[in-house]
From TrEMBL:
Protein name: N-alpha-acetyltransferase 25, NatB auxiliary subunit
Organism annotation: Sphaerodactylus townsendi
Domain of life of the organism encoding this protein: Eukaryota
Amino acid sequence: KSCLKTELQFSDYYCLLAVHLLLDIWLEAGEEPAAWQCLTLLEEGLTHSPSNAQFKLLLIRIYCMLGAFEPVVELYSSLDAKHIQHDTIGYLLTRYAAALGNYIAASQSCNFALRFFHSNQKDTSEYIIQAYKYGAFEKIPEFIAFRNRLNSSLHFAQVRIERMLLDLLLEANISVSLEESIKSMSLSPEEDDIPWKDLRDNRDLTVLFSWDPKDRSISEEHRKLSLEEETIWLQIRSLTLRLISGLPALGHSAPHPKNSEKTTENGVSSKIDTVRDLLQQLDAAVKSGKQFLEQKIQYPVLGPPPSRMASFFSSGSCQCQTSLFHLVSEIYELDTNGLEDSTVIQERIGNSFKLLLQQLTDLFSTCKGDLLEVREGSFMVHPNILENLVFFLETISIVLWVCSYSDAVLRPCRSNLQKKKKKKKESAALPPVFSSFQDYVSGLQTLTSNVIDYIKGLEVTLTALKLEELSIEDTFLSPEEKKFTKTALVKVQNSYQHSIQEIGELLKKRLDSIRNLKV
């Protein structure tokens, strides 16, 4: 921490004080031009004091708040954080890594953080062995305490879960199957290796200077609330990952005889029990998250950044994802009961398909708008659009994985039905669940195509704004200051452009997979 809080030149203090006042104007009065003035001052200040950690930390926070992750990676790297600081200040980077659509940079950031944790797990074991070997017994408790601190780290658990979800998003049913991806990660829905009772919040929430300790300082209450929020969000993400990992294991099972008890055969019955238990836990975690957000907690400006939980709920992504996992239970019930005498189940499934299409359409509606717009010589950004697009991509990926399971169940059912019809030489209509599924898949194709077209439109708009070479019309800024404003604007524009390009490319791959789903 000491290397981050280096001695500041007198002029640096004035610069930081001005930035803090401008942050208040931006976040409390809602005047967005103040955010660009912050970036202008900090970018200029960094040219005069290239080692100033406070300038870099503030730039990281502001760029992330504006939805631009790309410039943050280099800034964090230039901090040259040492050892344990990757656990204490790493949250400044990883909190936004998967949230803003810059997946290549997000993967690199998560990998970097995990390398620190994994190398220290290995090193501390070696230190303990060496301490025994050379009789330095008084050091052994220190090494064990340090290892326990890292193993119980909230940040470590968060990065690990997000990294695995990111891997599935980038690879599952694209380069490899979902089942292969889950096997390569050694994921199991039954296993939960997060030490919930011993989780430690090792974050340094005072790493940013505060000029008004009375109003700006982080209270103990804020620390507890932030830890509670992050823990609930981690529970939701962990349960989501475990539910996804349970999909390939369900497979297709032969229908059970009527009125017979369902026995555990090859672990299949226990797998659905596990999925249903996880779904109950997810519902409980979601309820806890909603109750927490009802408090409408405001952290200090330079305090802990809020989690992604609020956007997860407000975008509609939460409703979609929980509906999808409930659908899995319905599909399994149809699979075990068979098509005969399952009219009620088929009706429920058909209604679930219709509901999901509506929920996905509503989610898409939260993604509409301009990422960057110009108003009377000033800029307005809407990073929530980018965050919602990221949630849409994640949700449509889960949609695809659940569809693949549904497809694996319905295909054999249809095949068996057609064989029976051929033997009896009948031409009866197919059960309604098949047409419901086809309508659902067709609706998904149309919706995903519309989102891809919309993203292309965002790209065109951003490119046009770049070609116009925008600049802020501020008579109070000198030509030199306007140059730094331009630098910040270009960084934000480039980050937005690369993010939506990556989201668009992944959505195209998902659309290709959806097109192959035809029972």
